[in-house]
Amino acid sequence: MGQIIEFPCPDGSKAKGYLASSAQADAPGIVVIQEWWGLQDQIKGLCDQFAAAGYNSLAPDLYGGKVVPYHDPGAAGAAMSSLDFTNATDHGVRGAVQHLARNGKKVGLTGFCMGGAVTTIGAVRIPELAAAVTFYGIAPDAEQHASALRVPLQGHFALHDDWITPAMVKSYDAALNKAGKTHEFFEYDAKHGFMNEQRPEVFNAEAKKQAWSRCMAFFGKYLEA
Fold it and tell me: What distance, in Å, lies between the first and last C-alpha atoms of the chain?
């Protein structure tokens, strides 16, 4: 089990987040970005899983303590709309990356839904990163910045998704290919949110198992080399 900590941001402010520490003090790090529901227990659980796999894992609280119930997508949408994605990436997310990088080890970034979009922004804007993995999230202007991608990117997407559609994935993939960027995308016969076991209407155990395995192999390749 992890704990809520406070860490500094590049602009001098402070942010809070859930930190799950590996048994190995000098382990590589993974920053985990929340869905539009906020810092739910499910996101904390993913941090615990990363820690158990040998990574110090930190999920910054981008909503400042606000957590939206799963049954209220309207409130989740409002909370997401009020978030300045670029500012959150440059300060809260980058601050979390810098916090995990203090031990000199490599740090990766991953996120889900809204957090996946933030991940694609961070993969362009955060210089301390070594790799990034997005789950069913792409920033609206990601294609425009494909040539600026700093790190290897892995993506996991659902074939039955009205938010991040297969057409959007194909278009982003093409932009990254044109820019010559290292990336790999996977699509699953599943719905948006398939990694979230707390939402049985979208959870897909087989897709999660396969995506998690691929994610861990990717981070192992780029964070532990």
Answer: 27
